[in-house]
Design a protein that fits this description.
By secondary structure, this protein is an alpha/beta fold. Helix content is 27%, strand content 15%.
């Protein structure tokens, strides 16, 4: 006869991301978005596994945004413009000591993934569903759900 002898409950502090994943509402994912786990255990929601793996490689493995002598001090203010699904913001949260991060993503479907991804990690991040410009204006954006890195205001230039 089978019976439950024990079960595991992830610690809410030390296993914050695990708790967030377990308690996430999977029903509100659109365009077939899914949660993908990277080689180092970092998980991110995306519409396309290949795209999120490419972002992971660029940001986490190649550290593309932190070359050329850039130093990030303790308590740094980091602004992530065009945050996409949040790979850079998540990397910064996990790498630097107590950063304050402001993430901006203007396209609503991509912003929804950014919001889900930021919720997976415990940190001081504010996200905004707006674009950044040198002037106030309305703009038309192209949106490619399975190639979000190509989406944007001037995507015809890619």
């Amino acid at each position: 006869e089978k019976s439950l002898i024990a079960y595991v409950v992830p610690d809410k502090v030390r296993a914050f991301a695990v708790n967030q994943i377990l308690n996430a509402n999977k029903g509100d994912l659109e365009f077939g978005a899914a949660l993908y786990e990277m080689d180092n255990g970092v998980s991110m929601y995306s519409y396309n596994r290949s795209e999120v793996k490419m972002l992971y490689t660029e940001v986490f493995e190649l550290k593309t945004y932190y070359k050329h002598g850039i130093v990030v001090p303790k308590d740094a203010c980091i602004i992530d413009v065009g945050a996409n699904v949040g790979a850079f913001s998540i990397f910064s949260l996990l790498t630097f000591e107590n950063p304050k991060i402001y993430s901006f993503e203007p396209l609503a479907p991509i912003y929804n993934l950014l919001e889900k991804n930021i919720r997976l990690y415990n940190g001081n991040v504010e996200i905004f569903n707006v674009g950044i410009s040198d002037k106030e204006e309305e703009a038309i954006f192209d949106y490619y759900p399975f190639a979000t890195v190509l989406s944007g205001r001037h995507s015809e230039n890619y």
